[in-house]
Recover the amino acids of this structure.
C-alpha cells in the first residue's frame, strides 16, 4: 500500500503565528494535494502540485501557501494563522492527473487559538 | 461550474438492507468518478471508482451507477453490515484537470 506520512499529527498554534504542515510520500507519485476537512464541507482542495517545483491553487487557497521542494515532500504554510483555519488537514498523493487512486496521509489536527 | 452535490448528508439503514448515496456533477467534461470511505479517526480510502466509458460497476457488495446524460452517479451498498458505518465521499474529475472535486459527504449508520 502506498505510504503518505504527515507531521505534526496534532498542532496548537496562536493567532498570527506561522504554521508549517509537512507531508512525505514514498510512492514516487507526481501529484500531491492538500485538503482540509470540516463538518458539512467534506474535503476541500487548498493547493496541489504536479511535481517538484510546481504548486497550483486549489479551490480555497486564500491564507495558505504551498511548497514542493522534491518529489517526496509537499508542505502547507500558514503565514498568519487565524482561528478559521482550525481544521483537520489531509495530504494525498496520486498519479494520472487526478484520474486514479489518491492515497491519503493520516491527517493533521490543527487548532488555532 | 465544478461543484459536486452529494445527498443525503445523513443516512441510517437497518443491518442487512441496502443503502444508496447519490451525487450530481456540473462539469460535463468529468470522466472519472471515485468513491472514498472514511472510518472515524481515519483517512479516506478509495473503495470503488467508475469511468465514463461504463454505466455500471460492481465489486464486493458495492455497485456504482453512472448516468452521463443526467450528470448523476450513485453508490449502492447491498446487505449492509456494521462495518459499513462510516463517512462516504463521492468525487469527480475531468481529464487534464489534475484534481478531484469532492462531494460534501454522507454519514452512514447501520442499525443492528
Amino acid at each position: 500500500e502506498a505510504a503518505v506520512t504527515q507531521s505534526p499529527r496534532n498542532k496548537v498554534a496562536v493567532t498570527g503565528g506561522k504554521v508549517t504542515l509537512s507531508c512525505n510520500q514514498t510512492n514516487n507519485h507526481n501529484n500531491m494535494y492538500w485538503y482540509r476537512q470540516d463538518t458539512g464541507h467534506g474535503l476541500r482542495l487548498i493547493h496541489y502540485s504536479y511535481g517538484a517545483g510546481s504548486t497550483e491553487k486549489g479551490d480555497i487557497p486564500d491564507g495558505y501557501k504551498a511548497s514542493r521542494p522534491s518529489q517526496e515532500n509537499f508542505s502547507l504554510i500558514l503565514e498568519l494563522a487565524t482561528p478559521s483555519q482550525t481544521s483537520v488537514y489531509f495530504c494525498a498523493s496520486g498519479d494520472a492527473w487526478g484520474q486514479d487512486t489518491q492515497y491519503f496521509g493520516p491527517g493533521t489536527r490543527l487548532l488555532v487559538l | 461550474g465544478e461543484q459536486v452535490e452529494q445527498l443525503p448528508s445523513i443516512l441510517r439503514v437497518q443491518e442487512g438492507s441496502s443503502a444508496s448515496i447519490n451525487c450530481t456533477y456540473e462539469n460535463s467534461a468529468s470522466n472519472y468518478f471515485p468513491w472514498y470511505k472514511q472510518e472515524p479517526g481515519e483517512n479516506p480510502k478509495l473503495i470503488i471508482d467508475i469511468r465514463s466509458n461504463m454505466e455500471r460497476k460492481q465489486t464486493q457488495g458495492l455497485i456504482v451507477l453512472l448516468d452521463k446524460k443526467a450528470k448523476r452517479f450513485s453508490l449502492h451498498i447491498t446487505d449492509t453490515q456494521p462495518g459499513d458505518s462510516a463517512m462516504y465521499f463521492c468525487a469527480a474529475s475531468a481529464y487534464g484537470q489534475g484534481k478531484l472535486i469532492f462531494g460534501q459527504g454522507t454519514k452512514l449508520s447501520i442499525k443492528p
The CA atoms of residues 84 and 110 of chain B lie 7 Å apart. Chain B touches chain A at residues 2, 6, 9, 31-32, 34, 42-46, 49, 89, 93, 95-105 (CB under 8 Å). Chain B has a mean pLDDT of 95. The two ends of chain B are 40 Å apart (CA to CA).
